[in-house]
Amino acid sequence: xxxxxxxxxxxxxxxxxxxxxxCGVLLFFGWFALHLGWLGWAILLLSAAYxxxxxxxAREGITTLIKEKELDVDLxxxxxxxxxxxxxxxxxxxxxxxxxxxxxxxxxxxxxLEGYAMGRTERSIRSLMSLTPDTARVLHQGQEQxxxxxxLKVGDEIVIKPGELIPTDGIIVxxxxxxxxxxxxxxxxxxxxxxxxxxFAGTLNGYGALKLKIHKPAASNLIQRVIQLVEEAQESAPPxxxxxxxxxxxxxxxxxxxxxxxxxxxxxxxxxxxxxTIYRALTFLxxxxxxxxxxxxxxxxxxxxxxxxxxxxxxKNGAQLENMGKVRAIAIDKTGTLTTGQVQVSQVxxxxxxxxxxxxxxxxxxxxxxxxxIAKAVVQAASDLNWEHGxxxxxxxxxxxxxxxxxxxxxxxxAAFVQLYVTKLPxxxxxxxxxxxxxxxxxxxxxxxxxxxxxxAIADMIRPEATATIRRLRQLGVEQIxxxxxxxxxxxxxxxxxxxxxxVYAELLPEDKxxxxxxxxKQYHTVAMVGDGINDAxxxxxxxxxxxxxxxxxxxxxxxxxxxLIADRLEKIVVAMELGRRxxxxxxxxxxxALTSIIxxxxxxxxxxxxxxxxxxxxxxxTVLVTLNGLRLLRRF
Length: 637
Ligand code: ADP
Ligand code: MG
Description:
magnesium; Calcium-transporting ATPase, cytoplasmic transduction domain A; cell membrane; binds magnesium ion; alpha+beta; transmembrane helix; ATPase_P-type_domA; ATP-binding
């Protein structure tokens, strides 16, 4: 009746419910027959109730016993029920047979309920998947043709009509539309997309007609990867769950030993009669079983993960959901994280020997090889000019890029980096650069051999939600929020001030970011890092919780981070943290409640205040309650 055997299919849920119903009906008629004094009929009907209601638990219990050599709660229940029935037959106390059957009935009902609850979590995740259509309208020699998704090839062009669901990830080659990406980002506000931009399977096209070129196989669609990650998350038990599972195994053995002692000793020590003794030992088996404890964690975490997935927050496992609730310090990257990363060249200056066009075209010759946001801005700005690609181009993450053009060494990057190659940056240009940096712009320098050619100022936009997010994080009690960036101190300061961050660490190389996370961990223990780029990957991996701006799908981010913000919206950090805290508090409530009810039921049983059916109701009731309490995390807030 318990997790994880109960990640059941829909049909099995139905079978379980049906079995419980039939068991209930048989029990009722058996009880009736007993009252009329039809003993034979009563025993027949009640036996049928035992078999039908208890079959599933017996099967699971025996499988666990044989396969894993472990005792589980299912088996304890069956033993208790059969024990009660035997006692009843032996002492001719037939109401005990009814007690055992009630035990089986309640056990079957709660098993079915839990199965249903877990199924609901599963379905909530699966509903993501059902959003993608399974055919696409492919353009083939000017003709439209409906083809199944798995027959599409990279390079095919497909047509999307207004109002249609997009069947697979692709790049827009013609058309313009607004797209509702709620299925993958949870964000219901449509986003505008046009030629050159990527659209995702499962999202909904607005009023425009679009032509897409397929640039990757359907199996690697973003939504497929999301589903896969969520499924992996479901399978990996967090440490707290493993602890409980281990505890449960030892505990079950203790219960059996104590149960046996309780069935033997009391007549000698406490002068109980044998019937009372055995009856109470059986009740003990039932109430002491740790069902509620086992159901305390996983349903809650799975619900939390499912809830996150629906809002564009991808938790790779339950442990990260728990950790996110404990974060005490956060380090946030600047470019692409606090800012949109949709950067634009705002100024270009050249030294006396060169022109602005020289500077832009030479920079573009190298940047055309890079994926960095700065690179995209430079190439964009040079798109109307004539230039050639450089050769031997090499990107140095966090610093810049080097390469050859017309047999000259070209260097492009931040001041410190370019200064490694040139003797001195001209004072006039430096003054200008500093003034731009105070405006929050990023300045990159360009050099040919040992000679400075000029500098390019790049403007980035602070994400509109950044300031409010930082404020919320502080309200939530995050003790330390720092900005870490590879960009220079002045630019970093300006941006930090604008969003309300006081601690700034600038001019960091990827390994410096990693070390900074380490030192934060020494002080604050649970540290989150939010980033977007390759240069953030080591720090993301080191942080207790690495959070990546999904940028709707950057691979490095998806792989390294523990949590991916598919929506690329900074405020989702706050939602993730609230979700983490709620999960934590629900789990704490559950564990406290489960332990308390087990102890109370054991005490009541020992003092002789409960009978078997009441014991079962208390036991199963508490299990169902903790499961339902966990399911509260499915609700959006
Ligand atoms: P952040 O940490 O803010 O995300 P990066 O670590 O990616 O920034 O880059 C740090 C700095 O290194 C940039 O501000 C820029 O000056 C320089 N830089 C890195 N890559 C490039 C590039 N491809 N072209 C020019 N400059 C670069
Ligand atoms: Mg970055």
